[in-house]
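hi!! sorry for the late reply, been swamped w classes. u asked for the two structures so here they r. pasted raw, havent cleaned anything up. first the sequence of the first protein and right below it the tokens
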Amino acid sequence: MIRNFANKVGLITEKSILLKEHIAHPRKEKQAKMQTAINYCNAKTFAVNTKLEDVFTFEHLYESAKKCCRNVRWKTSTQNFEHEMMLNVHKLKKSVLNETFKSKGFHQFTICERGKTREIKSLHITERAVQKCLCDYYLTPVFTPSFIYDNGACLKGKGTGFAIKRLKHHLHKFWQENHTNKGYILLLDIKSFFNSINHQVLIDIVGKKVKDPKILKLFAYLVHCFGGECGLGLGSQISQVSASIYLNKLDHYVKDIKGQKYYGRYMDDAYVISKDKKTLEDLLEGIKVVLGELKLQLSPNKTHILNLSNGFTYLKRKFRLFENGKLNVKPYKPNIRRYCRKYKKLLKKNLSREKLKALEITFKGYLQEFNYIDRYTRRIIYGYFKRTHTWLDF
């Protein structure tokens, strides 16, 4: 019965994932590299020729403001801004171009996400529009071409799903090259990443590409609004973009200088796969030096060199590469239990089925990502959803 339930949600497949499904075509890889080189040259020209007046046009600010109003129209500040949007956008544009724009501060609150307490700094709608316009129409076009392909954070078409696919691709490529699972993986985690980003170091990095002093001055002002010498607040777009820019030096050190092919990063979580453990140990010392220049430190409790054959955990998923090249990806057990507890808590509130449908779809989509699931996890899912929540359509 449990096996039939698991089959219905797509947890068990009769055949393992074929190797060729995870290997990119050489021609496509070559085309991607050529396009990256073209975009890089265009970005350098764009950075030199673009001025503050070209970025903060009325059309750009208006489109940015409309996007910022989505899903937050219940806020009074958003309703007031949207009521006279044309006039407010005109005033906002005038204040930015005259260099008189001032931040209205943050609304700070705490959330508990995946067992971690996070401090969120919510912006006023006007500052969100300015940040979005600056990021979408200048910072992203200028800096994105210089990012490595395996940087999976805060970019269009990328995210945790992309980072997981690249890790699978690297594991399969490693097995195809060596025909064994006898290798090692270096897992990296930066200690208090967002709270440790140094403002002056970030501004110096951005200043190497930003040629217009007015744009750089606005960027520096938005960064210093978070207060202190270090730290970027969660909840703003400029924090996400700046985090990707800040660690770009680390990416190119590992990929270009050290020549590590099997490297990927999602925000402050990164990995390097190699056949030789001594290579990873030497690389780790070099990474510490690079992070020291950025005034960052690795988390000693989350930075490890592990054996591929024993399995490892990355981005809340458990990976294991077998001797025959088969790759198993298991769900992280605390995530399963967290979903189940959330269902149970919501059911006690007597919510309608329609309101719970969104969480049900999210959970089913999360489970269908895996081509394998162990008996213990199936038992947890079956016990919660078949015995307690009989209304679910599994």
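now the second protein. again sequence first, tokens right under
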Amino acid sequence: MHILVSICVPIYNVAPFIERCARSVFNQSYPNCEFLFVDDCSPDSSIATLTEIVSEYPHLKDRIRVICHDRNLGLAAARNSAVVAANGEFIMHVDSDDWLEHNAVELLVREQKRTDSDIVSGNAIAHYKDREELLQEPDLEDKDVLMRHMAELTLNHVIWRRLIRRSLYTENGIEAASGVNIGEDHHTLPRLIYYAKKCVKLDVVVYHYNRQNDNSYTSCTNYSHMVKRMKDDLASINILLQFFADKDPICMNQLKQAKAKYTLRCLNRCYERHDVKLYNSMAKELFSTDKKSLLALGLPGIKVLLAKGLQTLGLPGVNHLLIKKQSNIGRM
């Protein structure tokens, strides 16, 4: 008997790409899929295009559903809506500007049956405007090592290119944090892996990652987007710190160091932009990290940045802000 797989696709402003994505999921060689599209109030013609494509697959009509948000809630909420609506024993997330190999689900399900795994991951190809890059799933057989690796800030923690047992979400209350829409998978996948009994890798390309969509979360480069990314990345780290606090001390240590390193990078970017308000916010995040993790990263150099860097900005309120920073350092 073929297990049911729910292919979940969030839709927002992807009119140039949705046809390729939809055809790639509808043309899967695996016979038992349902297709869930979440319309996050897309302002363009994405849904109209999808409707036209659906009409070409009448034999799949009963297995295709479009879930409509009444307002734009963001990617995290769209992922959650799909998981809640899914009926499949397993879920596969596909971003609406990406596409699948025609036999992706078939290969992943075959490996799941062979290994009785809760999560089966494959490789992907990233398509840039001027090149292609193979994204290989890390060859880590130990589940705990894999979980700790996925907790780091790398592209490896993506939620797509994987077959995931739906009960990992539903039985453990795992969902993406609403509003944390950039890198929402960073705080989701490590928690799913924690509850999984077995995770395996299939060394085959199953997924195509589109890096040519200028509107995607990962492609935008303006400053306001960069600020949103910094805040969302730190929110994800804090979610994982809270989750693993009483579960995995090794993972906790990695997360603390990752938070300190990332916050320092954010401080440098704020300094370069003369953004005192955000600098102040990021400094608070930095000093919320425990002293041991900060010292391990060479905090004396950071003291110099905090003590001298802000003075060179010449912006209103800098002296007051500087006094607050020095006071914080003295209390550590």
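hope this helps!! also noticed smth abt the second:
The beta strands are 5-11, 33-39, 64-68, 90-93, 99-100, 119-127, 132-135, 162-165, 199-210.
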